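Researcher: Going back to the complex we discussed earlier. I've cleaned up the inputs and rechecked each line, so this should be the final set. Can you rerun the prediction on the complete assembly and write out the structure?
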Amino acid sequence: MFADYSMTELMSIFAMQGFAGLSLFSIFVLMALGLAIIFGQMGVINMAHGEFMILGAYTTYLTAQVFESVMPGLYGGYFFVAMILAFVVTFALGALVEWLMIRHLYHRPLDTLLATWGLSLILQQTYRSVFGAREVGVSLPDWMMGSIQVTDMVEIPINGLFVMVLSLLIAFAVYLLMFRSGWGRQVRAVVQNRPMAEAVGIDSGRVDRVTFALGCGIAGIAGSAFTMIGSTGPTSGQLYIVDTFLVVVFGGAQSLLGTIASAFTISQAQSTMEFFLSGSMAKVLTLLFVVGILMLRPQGLFALKVRR
Amino acid sequence: MKLSKTQTSTRRSSWTRRHLLGGLMALPALFALSNTALADAANTTGLAVTDDTVKVGILHSITGTMAISETGSVQAEKLAIEQINASGGVLGRQIEYIQEDGASDWPTFAEKSRKLLVNDKVAAVFGCWTSASRKAVLPVFEQYNGMLYYPTFYEGLEQSPNVIYTGQEATQQILASIDWLAKEKGAKTFYLLGSDYIWPRTSNKIARKHIDKLGLKVVGEEYYPLGHTQFNSVINKIKLKKPDVIFASVVGGSNVAFYKQMKAAGVDLTKEKPLLMTISVTEDEILGIGGENVEGAYASMKYFQSLTNANNEAFVKAFKERWGDDIVIGDVTQAAYLGPWLWKAAVEKAGSFDIAKVQAASPGIELTTAPEGYVRIHENHHLWSKARIGQAQTDGQYKLIYETEELMEPNPFPEGYQ
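Model: Rerun complete. Updated structure for the full complex:
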């Protein structure tokens, strides 16, 4: 399988695939961070995570439409506005859903699976009624279109770089929020011991709501970023949900660092294999590899050390 | 209506009472007689045909993942039916349609087609889109002897007396495009890429055989699951292999990701190399992909919305008046539009709605009013039609680059390709 290529070609293949892997990695991180916060910290299985992403994507689409028709001169910058709006909209919906539905189900974690699955169906149908069954696409501003030529064969797409920087920034922001702020300390306290946290005066209901909404908001940003690489349809969210759970579970559900490590491992393994084997074969081998590791370490790559 | 009734009755009042009585008594009998006589002549097999109406079925997915593609077909079929009704119907009868939803689910397609044929006794069904749905309904149509007008370009290798195929089969689309690439563009190497299901795989099998036959070379073949959005790796492979042609049969939403990522990775389709030939991206898909991402790609279809002929201009105008100005019309939509018109022509040639007679009358039926120009039904129930190559423009339309001079004979079983 390596014999068909010369040494220099192999070098550039690994460089190109390494970069393809990095951009897959940043997509995984964006998808999984929101879920890791909700599933890892709260134990809620949010099957509607994909639909929150799609809400972010549709928000971006609408923003792009508005910019295009009202202020075409500023189109180059629409994306930043769109991302903020996507976050705000999904955050708000997340808070609403938590208040209406999730908070009644905290003692029945498996039921959150059913409830959020129902929610995902409702959201899908809503998107279909509002935006139609047809998939919509957003055109990129010119500055995001090109690629940077590194060598003859290695070219790095600018939008890929953009997603990468974005996901690193968001991961860093989440890290600050969870580990370097008072609020993060409250979240972690509630996760580890709810009665004790309440006893020291933490409003655990409010912490839950903000945590859930934050997870949804990050999903919205992820969806917004996805409009750069793919299309948006009512059921597009379903495509991401399996990969997302895979990343979160493999990383060890309660560890954000684990999520990032697992996203990196899976994406690099998949992208390198994808070049030499067919796409489906690479996926199968990746899954086998993940299942193998999970059999040895059921708690995932990184486990939180708590006294049970 | 009311006025004419009063007029008749005033005229009648001048008749003698005996005349009137006799007339009144004879009237229902006459009515019944004419009813059976007329219906008998045109329909001996108990189809849902009355003196004034005839029922047909429309069977497409209006929910589920295929709804995106099949919506256009439904609109085209309804438009054709409305136009036929406005021009006097079929054998003097207005067409009524019963619409069923296949829901993108093949068993549902089979079940609904059984319902249409057995319970509703429709005279014809216009429908199906994917090969999988057609394969699912085929035994039902053969068992209950119905007529299906199937609009999608497909892989061929099939022929049924109960189906009229109004789209192209493989030789009219795949072989024609490869011949053109080899002859006009001097293409030597091909990279085959498709979504992972029956149609792209069969299409590429046929393409590969033909490429081998011409003495050219396939340098890569690759399939990705439906809905896949990560094409970075395959684009890298394409860049490394430097094929003359990327032969693409990626379907649905994946196309958006594929073309956007190609563009971002610096593959310029407007250049001479690599050329991209798609057999799956119609104007409908470009709407989602965005014209600027797909600009320069070639498509092998028999119909483009931009065709300039009087038939097509009238069709596009009527379509937009009926379904909205911002709509686009793709290849399959036009093929779906042909269905009701071909059926009407066959029924009128047969002088009957009977399935057997319509089947017998079908070969040789021609449409001079088809938006694609002119079509004729072959003995093998496929259409003689032109093969056309278009190049995608930034406005989302195809520019006609090449068309065969003669109509291409449909050949669903090309030698050596089974």
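Model: Worth noting: The CA atoms of residues 31 and 37 of chain B lie 10 Å apart.
Researcher: Good, that matches what I expected from the previous run.
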